[in-house]
């Protein structure tokens, strides 16, 4: 039985530092003089109102979000498409409107003190939702102004994917594959790099589970409740440190609200699928009471064993529950708040300890996961002296899971306590210079007990400082970034404590080649400290069918990378990006077979070792507007991983992929057909089997209806129409369990 316990705070966060941070944020926010809105100059001034409509039909866009930049308030268009702000001080305002499925638009208006301002918006449809990017740079910005290749998936796109895990949700994004032991355990792989080289964040802070240790460990997050998901492809060490050497996935849940809703708002989602009898339901709300904002969410997902052409993946069922609640004080100076989040999942592993597929109806290993998260966060949005803004976040996460054998007995338990703190400060622009700097700290306590203790208990501590500066000289904007990390891993055994430190750097440039075409160049130097499992593992690992042996003498990885991206936006009806990349690793860490067998488990012995490696490839995504409402989508990606020391391919590499889609959409109906091809993967190291190529065909469509201020959206999705039998070359169990077959999925979303 689980009992509620207050989180323990360890020495990483000295009490004076926490108090100082809180005082810095709380006092200005709730200062009466600062937080109270200025009164309009005369009479009826202080009112901003207008209407939001759809371009082609002129119909009101119910629920469109209207935001005034620099103000902590958000309004929603009502059943007639109208919005209204009151009690605004006189001045000049930039107003931004966003609605799912439509291009974001901003306009400027002036409240001059004589009469209310009226500002009407007409939005046009777009295939992909447009969002500012917050993960790839210290400040939110347009995707075209980000130095690194970045993709964003909005709430509507996530809803239409209807996937059950983070890896499956992102699996068709350019440059992103996944490794899995069943669909619920799918974890993203970026440009052939996975595990602890891809950092998974939730609202900018690491998810802090053990999914990077083993492919049978699920990511402790539900993508279907996200406001959006951002993917940074390539090293993001400057902002996020050692574990971002391959890339970053940021699931943005907005658990702590930072805006005051003029009226209560929220949504409900219900879904069902024929493959595995999957069911989904979630709901969220946002409401404000004076200067205090509240946000809450609840979610439930469940499924039976998934099917494929010719069979059933036994013991692949899952049951997932999550919920969160956040509260924040919001003023004209900034905000400060807190949130609590709970995640629980129970799911089966469709492969036995002997490496065989489990027949339908037969018991197997089940994992039971629990995670509690306590978050504090605040930001200053008003300028003070040289300071343009600041954001401070601190989080405590307690994660544990039990691996339950087919007999019902608990075999192994894992526990991970994580404390993380991060502070970002943005300075005012000085001439052509603008940028940010910050500090970061991490304290983790890991333990494992039971029959399959692969990694001994260990304590990991990390500290870092970073700077990120931009220099603008039209038509070129330059990036200069640097970070210093220090990390120690103490195994708590006779093995030695290891200390690692290193510097990461980035040089970049965005060159405007003429509106609206840009060339982005990014050079990076990054390092990754070995993980505790790479250093100290010593035991059988049923998920990889190997006895894994770590090496406490491993050295830290380093990589030197280059990205070249050519980006287009509405050039003769075409928008998209083409990227070439290469990353050269020194002391790349990976598992190799020794040719020996462990007498106790009977499993082959694999050793963590190091060698030089090279990753190179290309990514492409483009949208072509064939005619009004009709868009052709094209995508392709390729990565080649090579162990340059042994002159052989690296294991578990994604295949080359390509796809096209044809989408039609108006203000009420939408329909899309898509075809995807995965080419054969036959560049494999010795002992790894080849993977055949495959074709997948998907169709989805739906209708959006309005009733007063309520929006109803119904979506029907048909996945893998031809019930194609195919395997995932990135999965360690690709020869045992194939990927899911045909699925018909129906969902209903209500927004209010």
Q: Could you give a short account of the major beta sheet?
A: 22 strands, antiparallel, barrel
Ranges with pLDDT <50 over ≥5 residues?
A: 1-44
| Count of β-strands | 43
CATH superfamily of the largest domain: TonB-dependent receptor, beta-barrel domain
What does this structure look like?
The longest helix has 15 residues, at 15-29. Strand 20 and strand 21 form a beta hairpin. The protein has a 22-stranded antiparallel barrel. A 5-stranded mixed sheet has the order 6-5-2-3-16, with no helix packed on it. 5% of the residues lie in helices and 54% in strands. Residues 1-44 have low confidence and may be disordered. It is globular and about 85 Å long. The protein folds into 2 domains: 31-123, Immunoglobulin-like, CATH 2.60.40.1120; 250-751, Beta Barrel (Maltoporin, Chain A). The protein has 752 residues and is mainly beta.
List the helices and strands and how they pair.
Layout: H1 15-29, H2 32-35, E1 48-54, E2 65-68, E3 73-76, E4 82-85, E5 91-98, E6 105-111, E7 117-118, E8 121-123, E9 150-154, H3 155-161, H4 166-170, E10 176-179, E11 187-190, E12 198-202, E13 205-206, E14 228-233, H5 237-240, E15 247-252, E16 260-261, E17 265-273, E18 278-289, E19 292-303, E20 307-308, E21 311-312, E22 318-330, E23 334-348, E24 366-380, E25 387-404, E26 410-430, E27 433-450, E28 458-473, E29 476-490, E30 498-514, E31 517-528, H6 532-536, E32 538-541, E33 546-549, E34 557-571, E35 574-597, E36 604-627, E37 630-643, E38 648-649, E39 657-665, E40 669-678, E41 694-707, E42 710-719, E43 743-751
Parallel strand pairs: 1-7, 1-8, 3-16, 12-15, 33-36
Antiparallel strand pairs: 1-4, 2-3, 2-5, 5-6, 9-14, 10-11, 12-13, 14-15, 17-18, 17-43, 18-19, 19-22, 20-21, 22-23, 23-24, 24-25, 25-26, 26-27, 27-28, 28-29, 29-30, 30-31, 31-34, 32-33, 34-35, 35-36, 36-37, 37-38, 37-39, 39-40, 40-41, 41-42, 42-43
